[in-house]
Amino acid sequence: MNLFEKFDIKTENEHLYEIAFTHGSYSTKYRLNYNYERLEFLGDSVLSLIVSDYLYEKYPQYEEGKLTKLRANYVCQSALIYYSHELELHEYLRVAAEESNLTKNEILSITADIFESFLGAIFLDQGMDFAKEFVSKIIFKYIDENKIFFADYKSAMKEYGDAKDLEISYEVLNEQGVPHDKIFTISILIDGHEMGIGKGKNKKEAEQAAAKVAIEKLNIKVF
Question: Which residue numbers are catalytic?
Fold first, then answer.
């Protein structure tokens, strides 16, 4: 289906949306002077503002720290990938390399990126009210049903360590792969004793995975 029909967008600037779905590889191959990265930057801020506003109004009893953690769940990469797949935004992506030549990490990253770049284009072309309506249809329902996209196991482990006066640390055990597609293996230590091992495409992801193992072993509740 046509992008503009699908999202009920009436525009005189179709090129803006071409930019929103143009990956850097496509720009390089066809010598274009644009890609979606600037719109992605803008869309990231628009998304954060709209979600922040909704959470602020929905949870007047929550302090700043809890609102920040809650927002992170709905604007993290896992959430963006989910929204992007739900909207089938990949159908409009312009990328030079065949999908089979892209790494799994690159595909996931691009999928998340184009949700934000598309939102950035919507904001510039249609204004904040339209952007807010778009986000409300896609995301607010998941906030209302408390859907979990990302649990911050590392922060939960830090709170656990602080409460019990235990030292929580992480150690890189292994690092494999080429620079743009690495896999890290990291262990979590509690007072020097290994409590879990996790893997991820970056150190933060591997630390979260290791912390999750420790959380499950210790039966700690994560909000």
Answer: 44, 116
